[in-house]
Amino acid sequence: MGKVLEVKDLVTTFRIGKKEYEVLRGISFDINENETVCMVGESGCGKSVTTLSIMDLLPNNGRVVSGSIKLGGQELTTLSSRERNELRGKKMGMIFQEPMTALNPLLTIGRQLTEGLRLHKGLSKEEAWKVAVTYLEKVGIANPEARMKQYPFQLSGGLRQRIMIAMVMAVEPSLLIADEPTTALDVTIQKQVLVLLNKLKKDVSTGVLFITHDLGVVAEIADRVIILYSGRKVEEGSIEAIFSKPLHPYTVGLMKAVPNVDEDDFDIQPIPGTFPNITEDIGGCRFHPRCPYATERCRTEVPAELEIEPGHTVCCHKVEEEHRK
Amino acid sequence: MSDERKVLLELKKLKKYFPVRRGVSVKALEDVSFSIYEGEKFGVVGESGCGKSTLGRVILQLYPQTSGACIYHGRTLDEMCPKYLAKEIAKLPEYQKKAGEFYQKSLEVDKKAEVLKKEIDALSALGTAKEVKKEAALQKKLSTLEFKSKELKKDASRQLREGSRTVGSLILCKDLPAVQALFDKAQKETAAASDSIKKFRDLEKQYEEGRVAGKADAALKEKMEAARKEAQGHVEAAKGFRVKAWQDYHGKDILPITERTLDPAYQAKLDGNYETGINLGKLTKEEMRDMRREMQMIFQDPAASLDPRQSIGKSIEEVYVINTDYPADVRKEKTMELLEKVGLKREHYYSYPHALSGGQKQRVGIARAIALDTRFVVLDESVSALDVSVQAQILQLLGALSEEKHLTYFFITHDLGVVKHFCDRIVVMYLGNVCELAESKELFHNPLHPYTDSLLSAVPRLKIGQEHSTESVLEGDVPSAMNPPKGCPFHTRCSKCMEICTKEKPPIVEKEPGHFVACHLYDKK
Question: What is the rounded distance in angstroms from the CA atom of residue A34 to the CA atom of residue A42?
């Protein structure tokens, strides 16, 4: 399995007023071919900023300060914005949360679907149309020829998201970034989209970076999970490891805060305190103000990444001390 | 189940149509009927567009209902004495008269139809080409007549139904003026009782103010006692008149207004319409406004429900400025206490919404909703916009508040995990219809309706390793509410669809005690 994406020590900052604040504080991870990596965390933890950094779509006040992003072995951070523009859509595609805002309301579905194919694959209008139709079939849209001539407002949310997926996958990118693609959808439609994404991933053999805050969705789709908290990775591991043996207190807390449909006597336990703002200056482990096990060391020293088992890493002093014993 | 529990809110065949253009409307709610008990956390789930939010808003009368009724039992008629009561009593003879008129008209139409039928029979006996053409024309005429008669009969029973809301089956009485007189007397007593109760409240307030200031006034206390007794007397008297009307006229001397009126089953049905609570849809604007002191709403987006230019304290205090006449320092103190109660700090009185996180803003929304003597709260996706760890905090707070203040929640959400653990009973809605209603555990263990079943299986589980089933994935989208499918609304997506489902709407049946379902799979005995 080749590595599709390698991110190393990525630091991204945002300028607010005259000061620059770190939003990503050194994040490293890889994505292999044909693998779905889920990035989980609460709003403001840097999930979306990670994807925007990879795509080079950061707003004007944000910039990647250091670290490297490699797509299929090619370093991206040193490329010019023009060169990166060529990679976008061709090598890495992105699906957004709100399918209505991602589609142009003034153009037909067909026009929008064929645009990428003609641009990136150099197909003629007719060829692109044919490919687009086959992809619409693949994403389970009945009567694709008629749909090609319709406008986005004529379609439901679930259909629009399918079209977004078809649009991105038709170009066959090596990396697919899905930023909360099912959050705006109803559960029944969400299920349809998740099943579809799993199927397409196998067909096209792409690496998928799936951003979500819903642990249920993670269990459904992920091969590997990365838990982010306030700009840092706190835990990473295979889905089995994370769900059966969560180590970091934050991961454990998250699992207890999500109401579990399968259990009868589930006591919803919140994590005390509030999520820190990026402008807040918290020394040591960023989670320590909310952590029940916080010690003096947690307040001063940033925990290093520790591999507990192959592939299962965690950044926590408490786990480290227990592991050493 | 335990019927001793007090019903707080009763929905009767609630309908809400939003007109789009002539002849076309979005059918957001179709015949929704159920009861909500006092102190209960009642959950509503369904996909977007199923009418959950509309239902919440119709209950609070933020949208007027198209037909049906919301009956509120939180306050008695004696306490409130709404204005519609007297009007309805005055209208009783009119209802009866109109019902008779409509029915007579329908009989006339029936006679015409009878004549036509004979003509048609005569024509069809001849059977030449010319006659066949003529016959077709007459046939068409006949069907319009039949339709007209049906509509008139419906109008007649509609009139009787309206009347029965105030007096039950007594609307059928021959001696309606006497019944009317008795109810009128009862109503006057109710009005007097309501006045006495108001007087009592005023005195109580004066007395409390005096007591806080250190001067308990014994004379006031006596006056209070007198007012209370007076009120009680009026309430008893009102009850007496109603009971007398019931005893003297119920089931006796029934007018044969329509052929159904002599049927005891129909009379019982009319009795069932009798409203003992307050019909929210008929209250005047001012009365409803007063009602909102105890019926509140918490919205989904806490940021949008706060004014960015108003400090948190002022936002909450406004409730007191509008609804009470507390002096400024009392208002401020009350607000600060509220802030602490919902887990904020006193300092937050001076902050502005932008300085608060999403969870904190939602706490402000909660504080505002419970500021007065709230009893019933509609929570419209109130935790959906929050992150899981904060969502859990808010749920805990809501749970604690409901116990402390004995609140009843109407909890609208699409998150099945949250309702399962937060709510006592759950209703599942689809396209404006109730599919299933059961206690939450029962619903999750034993889902009866195919829609509930597929909804539950679509929820992402926190379990791994199991091969996720793809067979129960619901195909297609929710149909448009402008043109809902005939028969069972769910039949277009249902895997167990039968012939009858496309034609007839399934009735709601109680499959097991407390477990209601509307599906043809279960309506056979």
Answer: 26
Tell me what ipTM this predicted complex has.
0.81
Rounded-to-integer distance, Cα B487 and Cα B500, Å: 8
Kindly report the nearest CA distance between residue B351 and chain A, in angstroms.
17
Kindly provide the b/e burial profile for residues B185-205, where b requires at least 16 CB atoms within 10 angstroms of the residue's own CB. Answer: bbbbbbbbbbebbebbeebee
Cβ neighbour number for residue B280 with a 10 Å cutoff: 21
Nearest by CB to B389, from A186, A253, A259: name it: A253
- Spell out which residues of chain A touch residue B468, defining contact as CB-CB under 8 Å: 195, 220
Torsion-angle region of B96 (φ positive above 0: left; ψ -120 to 50: alpha; else: beta): alpha
Note whether A269 contacts B48, CB cutoff 8 Å: no
- From residue B392, how far is each of A185, A300, B280, B353, B357 by CA, in Å? 22, 29, 33, 21, 15
What pairing do the DSSP bridges indicate for beta strands A74-75 and A92-95? unpaired
The beta strand positions in B376-480, using DSSP E, are 376-380, 408-412, 425-430, 433-439
For residue A3, give both structure tokens: 């590595």
In sequence order, the β-bridge partners of residue B425 are B42, B439
- Listed residue (B422, B393, B397) closest to B410, CA to CA: B422
Give B75's contacts (C-beta < 8 A, 6+ positions apart): B278, B291, B294
CB pair distance less than 8 Å for B458 and A264: no
For A39, what's the count of Cα atoms within 13 Å in the CB-facing half-sphere?
Answer: 29
Question: Which residues in chain A have Cβ-Cβ distances shorter than 8 Å to B455?
Answer: 187-188
Beta bridge partners of B35: B10
Which of these, A119, A150, A122, lies nearest to A136 by C-alpha position? A150
B contacts of A42 (beta carbons < 8 Å): 387-390
Cβ of A80: how many Cβ atoms within 10 Å? 8
Q: Are B50 and B113 in contact (CB under 8 A)?
A: no
In order along its 525 residues, chain B shows pLDDT tens digits of: 445 688 999 998 899 999 888 888 888 998 899 999 999 999 999 888 888 889 999 999 999 989 888 999 888 887 778 888 888 888 888 888 888 889 889 889 989 888 888 888 888 777 777 778 888 888 888 889 889 988 888 888 888 888 888 888 888 888 888 888 888 888 888 888 888 888 888 888 888 778 877 777 788 888 888 888 888 888 888 888 888 888 888 877 777 777 777 788 888 888 888 888 889 988 888 889 888 888 999 988 888 889 999 999 999 999 999 888 888 888 999 999 999 999 898 989 999 998 888 888 999 999 999 998 899 999 998 888 888 888 899 999 999 999 998 999 999 998 888 999 899 999 999 999 999 999 999 999 999 999 998 888 888 887 765 555 555 677 777 888 888 888 899 998 888 888 888 888 999 999 988 899 999 988 765
Helix (H, G, I), strand (E, B) or coil at A210: strand
CB contact under 8 A, A268 and B421: yes
The DSSP letter of residue A261 is S
Does pTM surpass 0.90?
no
Q: Taking a C-beta distance cutoff of 8 angstroms, is the pair A287, A250 a contact?
A: yes
Subunit contact A219:B463, Cβ cutoff 8 A: yes
All residues of chain A having their beta carbon less than 8 Å from the beta carbon of residue B387 are 42-43, 213, 275
- In the numeric block, which tokens belong to residue B403? 């116990």
Q: Kind and range of the H or E element at B16?
A: strand B7-21
Which residues of chain A lie closer than 8 angstroms to B356, CB-CB?
none
Give the C-alpha distances (Å, rounded to integers) separating A156 from A141, A159, A190, B172, B477.
12, 5, 13, 51, 8
Sheet holding B278-279, edge to edge: B24-37, B7-21, B67-72, B278-279
Compute the nearest-CA separation of A281 from chain B (Å).
16
Q: Best mutation site among B41, B389, B390, B490 for testing chain A: the one with the most A CBs within 10 Å?
A: B389
